[in-house]
Structure formats: C-alpha cells, structure tokens
Task: structure prediction
Amino acid sequence: MSRTPEQEAPGHAEAPEVGELTPPDRTLMGPGPSPVHPRVLRAMSTPLVGHLDPSFVEIMNETQELLRYTFRTDNQWTIPVSGTGSASMEAAIGNLVEPGETMLVPTNGYFGGRMASMARRAGGEVVEVDAPWGEPLDPADVEAAFEEHQPDVFGFVHAETSTGVLQPEVPELTSIAHDHDAYVIADSVTSLGGVELRVDEWDIDVAYSGPQKCLSCPPGASPLTLNDRAMDKVLDREEEPRSWYLDLSLLEGYWGDERAYHHTAPITNVYALREALRLVAEEGIENRWARHREVAGELKAGLGELGLEMNADDEFWLPSLNAVRVPDGVDDAAVIDHLLSEHDLEIASGLGDLAGDIWRMGCMGHGARTKNVEFLLATLEEALNEQGYEA
Ligand SMILES: Cc1ncc(COP(=O)(O)O)c(C=O)c1O
Result:
C-alpha cells in the first residue's frame, strides 16, 4: 500500500510548537546532580572560544592545576574527560586493563558491577572481592582475593552512592595491591571535593570522578588522574584500547604539551568545571571536607530525631550521600513524590539490592548548606506525618 509523504513522516509536515524552556526550580538533594552554584551557571553563559584558541589552552592549564589541588596530587596526567562520570570511569578501566588481564572488583554496591562490565568489555577477566551492600571492603578479604587471583588491576569505590558507605583504610588497600604489583583504580565520583581524598598520600594510581556531585557542576567534563606508573602502563600497551574516543595515548596529544586536535572539547563544560574548582580552591579543600561533614551531620542528627535509621554504620557513614532506611509501613515512593510535587525537592529511592529499602539524600557541594538540610527535614517530617508515621 502506498503512503502519502505526510504518512511517511508523521509529525514532520508542520513545525512543532514547543514553548520556551522553563524547567522547574528544584532543590536537588538526591544522589546527584547537586545544585549548581550561581557562579558556575554564569561561567556557562560566557562566550565560546575555539577549543584550540590560545585563551582556551590557558583555561585548560588552569583547570588541570585546580584539579590537581582538589585530588591532592602532583600527577601531570590530570584531565577532565569529555563525558559523564562513566566516561572517566571507562577511560580509567579501558586503558589500564589489557586483554587477558585480571581485574578485581568489589560486590558491595551498584558501581562495582559497572566496573566489572567495563573490565570485561576491555577484554579483561573479572574476579570479585565480596562484602554485603551497606558495608565497606575488609582489607583482609582484599588480601585473600589477591592471594587467590593475583589480579593485575584492583578497583574499589571510595564513596558508594548506592549504599551511602565510605570506604575506610584506603592506604591499607593500596599497599596490599602494590605488594602484589597491581594497579589501583579508585572511584571517587561521590567523594571528590566533599570527602577527604588524598590521591598521592594514599598511593592511588588512578582516580576518576564526576563533576555533578560534590563539585556542584553540571555533568559533561569528568575528572581523571593517573600517576606516571599507571600512564607508563597505558603507553606501553601492546594492543590499542578498544575505544578510540577514550584512548589516553591519543588524548595525550590534546591535554599534553602538543595541544593538537583530538576532538572538540565541551568548552562550556570546561568553563563550568574551572569555576566550580575555583570555588573549591577559595574555600580550601580541607574546609570543604569539614563543611560537608558538619552540614551532613546536622542532617543525620535531624533524621535521628525523626526516628529514622541510617543504612551505614557510623564508622562508614558517607556525608555526601546519606542512605536512610524506610520505616515499616511507609511507602518510600509516596514520600519522594510528595517532596517533589509539593516542595520541588528531589531525593531518590534505593538502587539494586536496596531498592525500596532506603532513601538516598545527597549533601553535596552547594547543596551542603544548613538551609537546605532544614528544608529537607521539615518537608520530610510533613510527608511522613501524612502517612500516619510518628517518630
Ligand atoms: C560511584 C559512582 N560511580 C560512577 C558513576 C557514574 O557517573 P555518571 O552517572 O556521571 O556517568 C556514578 C553516578 O552516579 C557514581 O555515583
């Protein structure tokens, strides 16, 4: 049966009537993105320059310098990867893991699973070190996994966004890996700029992150740092990484001394990241860690007064992501809906093994302010009362 041109392309005949963009003004207190600082938004509305313009090369240098400060590293190889946190994650894993090599990944949260998928796609074998969702890795288990599997690369999640657990004893983990001549990749997506992280002092070979959590910057250019030892491994690979876009030996041409074209950098996102990192430097990184602890501490105390329980033990509490247990008889989704529809306030439900069991409340970057915490606690109490819950 023949079709008229209108039937071939339904909806294309007339120009669509789409109104001006007017997104709701939300208070973002979920697992990310976090609220963006007005100075970062302003930086994003400044004019574009070319990605090879001498002025942009200067902006790149400054962004790298600010990233080194925030990661607490002197690594020359410190760049924003074009793309979201998963892009810097895949750049780390896809370059470091060579076909036939073994990567040890954790099972104690959602993002260890993503590490495993990426390592397999890179041609690696995956072995696991177990801990329940809601607990950190035990160094003794990591040691045992090393003895058993002798992995080439070990990945761990410093701040697990799915469980609200902060991995303690990082230097112990890195020293186990280095005693076995392995490389360490740290996921610092939910810790960079909000929770103590010391890449050089803790002997982390590679750390990747995202801008939309404790840096309070929109997603799009994602921090990555590698020490010389890791970069030497990447540059000595026998086989090219499977991704052209994320091949660090090619990206070296753009972010290294040469400044040659590789791809058109997301210029506006680099502006944004530079401004977000300038805010970190102005505040001072240690002050910033302290602010996150203090303000999230106010949240934790207020949740306790409402009779709510944290998912993680106090010892492993992650200030930037507060995972809170949903009390019996309360509908977790109804509470989330109430906060969003009545108060334009975003929190999130649990993920994976913890779906339905927890709420996830972020306290990140520009969102880590007393005013936001008070607003969240007041509206949460109202939503709980609506369901007949009493502390
Ligand atoms: C711990 C962790 N790793 C990796 C990612 C992936 O980052 P993105 O969603 O920006 O790609 C996230 C995102 O929430 C995360 O929380």
About this structure: Residues 31-32, 84-86, 89, 111, 157, 161, 187, 189-190, 210, 219 surround pyridoxal-5'-phosphate (CB under 6 Å). DSSP finds 13 helices and 14 strands in the chain. The first helix runs from residue 5 to 8.
